[in-house]
């Protein structure tokens, strides 16, 4: 019997109530939002349930929404995959903008370790319970988080870059060699 999204939705609401919301089927992926305080409980339920069997964490990433209200400025997005039914789901948890933190999944999925470190490195989202949460790609001395919207795109004082090579001109200026 094929795993239906209505069954996933009904069982999640039955087990977690109003802490799960905004169910949506977009193309081939079923999406819903989870309160950040129950993210590990929901994911463990989806992984360990004998019917659902979402045993593979495909991706984990962060998003910054600076124009949202304070308690929804950041989100962590999880993509889980059930190989038996070839079913994918997306789970989104919104976080507080002044102190974005959520429980780590590194003890549930080993692959979450590096993905959480990358999300911390670029967005500053703290994964509580992570065994070694530190920068993974940027320098340790860096004090900002480059994927946040307040981070400047480029250094305006750079002289080694000609914007015309990147299609950033408003007029058709010839490139002189």
From TrEMBL:
Basic and acidic residues compositional bias, start-end: 152-166
Pfam families: Complex1_30kDa
Occurrences of domain NADH:ubiquinone oxidoreductase 30kDa subunit (ranges): 33-155
Cellular localization per UniProt: Cell membrane
SUPFAM superfamilies membership: Nqo5-like (SSF143243)
Region (Disordered): 152-177
GO cellular component: plasma membrane
Enzyme Commission code: 7.1.1.-
Chief location category: membrane
Catalyzed reactions per annotation: a quinone + NADH + 5 H(+)(in) = a quinol + NAD(+) + 4 H(+)(out)
Topological type in the membrane: Peripheral membrane protein
An example molecular function term from Gene Ontology annotations: quinone binding
HAMAP family, A to Z: NDH1_NuoC
Role description: NDH-1 shuttles electrons from NADH, via FMN and iron-sulfur (Fe-S) centers, to quinones in the respiratory chain. The immediate electron acceptor for the enzyme in this species is believed to be a menaquinone. Couples the redox reaction to proton translocation (for every two electrons transferred, four hydrogen ions are translocated across the cytoplasmic membrane), and thus conserves the redox energy in a proton gradient.
Record note on quaternary structure: NDH-1 is composed of 14 different subunits. Subunits NuoB, C, D, E, F, and G constitute the peripheral sector of the complex.
Protein name: NADH-quinone oxidoreductase subunit C
Organism: Flavobacterium aquicola
Originating gene: nuoC
């Amino acid at each position: 019997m094929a795993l239906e999204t209505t069954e996933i939705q009904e069982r999640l609401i039955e087990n977690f109530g109003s802490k799960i919301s905004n169910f949506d089927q977009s193309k081939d992926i079923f999406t819903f939002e989870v309160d950040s305080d129950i993210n590990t409980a929901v994911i463990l339920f989806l992984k360990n349930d004998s019917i659902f069997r979402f045993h593979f964490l495909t991706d984990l990433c962060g998003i910054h929404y600076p124009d949202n209200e304070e308690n929804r400025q950041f989100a962590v997005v999880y993509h889980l995959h059930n190989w038996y039914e070839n079913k994918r789901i997306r789970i989104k948890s919104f976080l507080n903008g002044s102190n974005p933190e959520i429980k780590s999944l590194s003890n549930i999925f080993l692959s979450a370790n590096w993905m959480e470190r990358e999300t911390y490195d670029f967005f500053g989202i703290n994964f509580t319970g992570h065994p070694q949460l530190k920068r993974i790609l940027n320098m340790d001395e860096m004090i900002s988080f480059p994927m946040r919207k307040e981070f400047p795109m480029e250094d305006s004082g750079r002289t080694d870059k000609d914007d015309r090579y990147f299609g950033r001109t408003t007029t058709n200026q010839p490139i002189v060699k």
